[in-house]
Amino acid sequence: MAKDEKLIYKLVEEINEAIYSMDSHFIKLHQNLISDELSPKQIILLDFINKNSQVTIGQIANYMNITSSAVGQLVSKLEEQHYVIRSINPENRREIFVCLDTSGIKYFDREEEIKQFIISRYYSKLELSEIVQLKEIVQKLNQIVLKEGIINEINDIHLKKGEI
């Protein structure tokens, strides 16, 4: 490994450790403030609905890469607890819409309160210019990751292992 590569590796390790430490703290904070007993799949489903207002079972299945039947089971459990509500699409009666119900709306209201708390408690201690710079760097890295794509990454890993 070249000298610059070693330095980059060390710096990225330090960045990853700092991010992991912050994420661990924020997760603990979140767990103490939200008592909902939701599985990771249920949270992903609720988040998808929240970001898109009203979605179909098929859209959820496609997004989560699971079967419509599996989505139906997840939705049924969430519907029992009033996190989501189903309705029939009046224009296509074979299509089911899913949107947030009362518990789901309350869940995201609490999420917003936690987000506001984290921003006011931690991010507000940074200069505005630092927050702008952080945002730009993270977005740039995200674009690089998205551009590369997962298939290229998997192929690269297999190449390094001598499997391809």
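the 2nd protein, sequnce then structure:
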Amino acid sequence: MLLKKNIPLKYVLGKIKFEILLVAVYTLVIVVLHDRFNLKHMAIPLSVPMIMGTVISLLLAFRSNQAYDRWWEARTVWGGIVNDSRSFARQVLSFVDETSYDSEEVSHFRERMIRRQIAWCYSLSQSLRGLDGKEGLERYISKREVSQVSRYANVPMALLELHARDLNYALKQGWVNEYQQVALDQMLTRFSDGMGKCERIKNTVFPATYSLYIHFALNFFILLLPFALIEYFGLVEVPLVVAIAASFLLIEKMAIHLQDPFDNKPTDTPMTAISRTIERDLKQMLNDHQLPETTVNNEQTFYIM
């Protein structure tokens, strides 16, 4: 996720540097041909690209809104994961009373469940980005559990299954009653629902034909623009056309990046940072003072992942 400050101009213009270079060369060629050969018939009425520009602006605005809705839905889902993870840890700690049973075994059970929940958050974020969902799990769960989940294609689902097995074991041991077991199982269902919503967003492709039509219309608008301005500005139209084209191209690029919130880019939903926040909160609930490091360096970093 891009931060409010310190976004370098190099990053912004780097998204369209090749397109801008082509526009500048193309416009310069049009200007040179017009001036050298006095080709007045090359000019077209300014109203033609103005009408196209208005239509394209509306289409880009609609597409940007749709792309932002996808990004915001992803962020909302992960906001729910934060709340549910905290509630899950609180329930595990409050429902399972280590003073009434074998304190060592119960304490191990509580810690295992909460640390596995931290592992689930990291694993889900890695899986959604197309990375290895097992990477780094050994910091939170045992080698035996890492080996078990490695057999699954969907590692986060496997971790939830381990949650369910431990929960059934706790019920048989009498550490939780039936009502508490149902409440905890409902939390697992909420985690599964959140994972499914994220997978739906990732696997639902933004309509390709819609994007393609807008892209073609935008390119045609940029191609016409130098011919409409050549009678008024001469050589000055090169930076003017570049500036206008850059405005439209940046909006298009913004929509393209926002429409895929799990694509491992600076514009992504900050799942790693959110998972680190969950880790911090849950470890503090366990009285574990080995907290994760902060992720943002205000002097150098302009985004968080």
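The chain has a mean pLDDT of 87. The two ends are 6 Å apart (CA to CA).
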